[in-house]
């Protein structure tokens, strides 16, 4: 299959690109490099462009002869979306509309969409299934939910086929230590915690200890990028016309902020000082997947089920690339 990957130079998009290319598919990244890195694309073709540029996208899809699209390009920071919702609504909703129009112009009917567990609201149960009601806490998450609706309408009206993948928290680095997370500025918990043993910061800030969780800090389900990538491969092969199937991608296990810091201490063998500060606006207390649908319908099995193994791959990447990618 020929797969165009928007956001293919970013953290999750590039991990998926490298994985599907290794499985024999032909890939092309399309990224404006606001967050992504050329080196993450690992020598595969990259078109530097914005998803808002419908004409360039259409031409790229036609020239490449794409069979399908994996759509990762988006603004992704929850805190930023509270402060600057305009960027999130424009980039994520208008940008996706532009991509859908380019796909229709190029007659391409198959797409995977990076949605998020952040679209769920609160639930009484320990884990979230695809049927858990959606009531997003942040502008970022609301943009993702709006796109889910847009996609369903496009599937119904135009017969296009989609799979909506609600990721929980992407984490880890490639097993060979050559690729990993590099956001500038970094915003995610695990890479920020690891900056302490790397000597780049002297402590980690804990955003709130007054949540309704056992230790008062937020709980997330940290899923390895390798396992996100294997789910994408299964999903693109299973995406049929006129449908918009939804799957959670998560391990089914949750870790609190404090547990992540402790796991990082174990993996690195260093003490990691912490400072408790106020809650970060937009953060829900607990997001943990029920991944049964992905396992039973698509046969997905995660390789990484132990958080310390996942953190060890991130640590290997950060140790060998303390300043991230060279570009
Ligand atoms: N990282 C997570 O834990 C997580 C969890 C749930 C969902 N997601 C979703 O997965 C996707 C990838 O997330 P990520 O963590 O890899 O983020 P990322 O920032 O590393 O990757 C996004 C990529 O998209 C590119 N991009 C952004 N706007 C663009 C535009 N207008 N045109 C072209 N390229 C553009 C960026 O340069 C970047 O390379 C996003 O859609 C995000 O919302 C991520
Ligand atoms: O310095 C920090 C950074 C984060 N946190 C906390 O750690 C948890 C995880 O935060 P991240 O920023 O690593 O991840 P998020 O859960 O906020 O968001 C990520 O996962 C979401 C799904 O949960 C999204 O889709 C989003 O794109 C992606 O950034 C949150 O409770 C946050 O408050 C801290 O305490 N200190």
Automatic annotation (TrEMBL):
<keyword id="KW-0119">Carbohydrate metabolism</keyword>
<keyword id="KW-0520">NAD</keyword>
<feature type="domain" description="NAD-dependent epimerase/dehydratase">
    <location>
        <begin position="3"/>
        <end position="250"/>
    </location>
</feature>
<dbReference type="InterPro" id="IPR001509">
    <property type="entry name" value="Epimerase_deHydtase"/>
</dbReference>
<comment type="pathway">
    <text>Carbohydrate metabolism; galactose metabolism.</text>
</comment>
<dbReference type="GO" id="GO:0003978">
    <property type="term" value="F:UDP-glucose 4-epimerase activity"/>
</dbReference>
<comment type="subunit">
    <text>Homodimer.</text>
</comment>
<dbReference type="InterPro" id="IPR036291">
    <property type="entry name" value="NAD(P)-bd_dom_sf"/>
</dbReference>
<comment type="similarity">
    <text>Belongs to the NAD(P)-dependent epimerase/dehydratase family.</text>
</comment>
<dbReference type="Pfam" id="PF01370">
    <property type="entry name" value="Epimerase"/>
</dbReference>
<dbReference type="GO" id="GO:0033499">
    <property type="term" value="P:galactose catabolic process via UDP-galactose, Leloir pathway"/>
</dbReference>
<protein>
    <recommendedName>
        <fullName>UDP-glucose 4-epimerase</fullName>
        <ecNumber>5.1.3.2</ecNumber>
    </recommendedName>
</protein>
<keyword id="KW-0413">Isomerase</keyword>
<dbReference type="InterPro" id="IPR005886">
    <property type="entry name" value="UDP_G4E"/>
</dbReference>
């Amino acid at each position: 299959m020929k797969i165009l990957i928007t956001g293919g130079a970013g953290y999750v998009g590039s991990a998926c690109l490298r994985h599907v290319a290794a499985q024999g598919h032909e890939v092309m990244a399309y990224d404006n490099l606001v967050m992504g890195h050329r080196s993450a694309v690992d020598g595969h073709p990259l078109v530097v462009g914005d998803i808002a540029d419908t004409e360039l996208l259409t031409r790229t899809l036609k020239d490449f002869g794409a069979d399908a699209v994996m759509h990762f390009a988006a603004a992704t920071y929850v805190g930023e979306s509270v402060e600057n919702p305009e960027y999130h609504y424009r980039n994520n909703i208008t940008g996706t509309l532009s991509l859908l129009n380019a796909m229709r112009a190029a007659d391409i009917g198959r797409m995977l969409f990076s949605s998020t567990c952040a679209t769920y609201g609160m639930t009484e149960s320990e884990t979230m299934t695809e049927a858990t009601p959606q009531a997003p806490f942040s502008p970022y998450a609301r943009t993702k939910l709006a796109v889910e609706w847009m996609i369903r309408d496009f599937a119904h009206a135009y017969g296009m086929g989609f799979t909506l993948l609600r990721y929980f928290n992407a984490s880890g680095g490639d097993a060979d230590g050559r690729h990993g997370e590099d956001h500038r500025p970094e915003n995610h918990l695990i890479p920020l915690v690891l900056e302490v043993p790397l000597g780049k910061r002297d402590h980690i800030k804990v955003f709130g200890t007054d949540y309704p969780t056992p230790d008062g800090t937020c709980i997330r389900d940290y899923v390895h990028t390798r396992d996100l990538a294997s789910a994408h491969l299964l999903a693109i092969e299973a995406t049929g016309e006129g449908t918009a199937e939804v799957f959670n991608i998560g391990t089914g296990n949750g870790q609190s902020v404090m547990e992540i810091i402790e796991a990082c201490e174990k993996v690195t063998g260093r003490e990691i000082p912490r400072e408790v500060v106020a809650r970060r606006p937009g953060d829900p207390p607990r997001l943990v997947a029920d991944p049964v649908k992905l396992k039973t319908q698509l046969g997905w099995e995660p390789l990484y089920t132990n958080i310390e193994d996942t953190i060890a791959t991130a640590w290997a990447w950060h140790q060998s690339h303390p300043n991230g990618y060279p570009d």
